[in-house]
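Reopening this one. Same input as before:
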Amino acid sequence: MCGEIQYGGKITQELDRALFTTYTYLWIREEIFNPSFQFNQGQLDFNYIIPDFPDHPSYLQYIGSMPPNDNPLMFGLNQNADLTASLNASKALIGVLIDTQPSDAGAAGGKTPE
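Same output, byte for byte:
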């Protein structure tokens, strides 16, 4: 219901809708309420779970323990996806730096050799 009603009308491409339906099935289902459920099925550096702590500081500690960058395997992507994303970000940054350079470095107002 969440995938079809809430977001379904905003996704117009059939392949995008199929991908979103797949992610909706994997991420929003009844099994996520089982205490042993974890979002990543393989063993990664960090296991994503829905925490059920009795107090607020425990939630903050859990959030603080999350890695700064998610492993691409968590989303079903190849391990090289992280490398590709970093390379693309670097290329974009270099492109912006080149675009912001002055177009010419000619001096103005100086005396001529004559």
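So the earlier flakiness isn't reproducible anymore. For the record, The mean pLDDT is 80.
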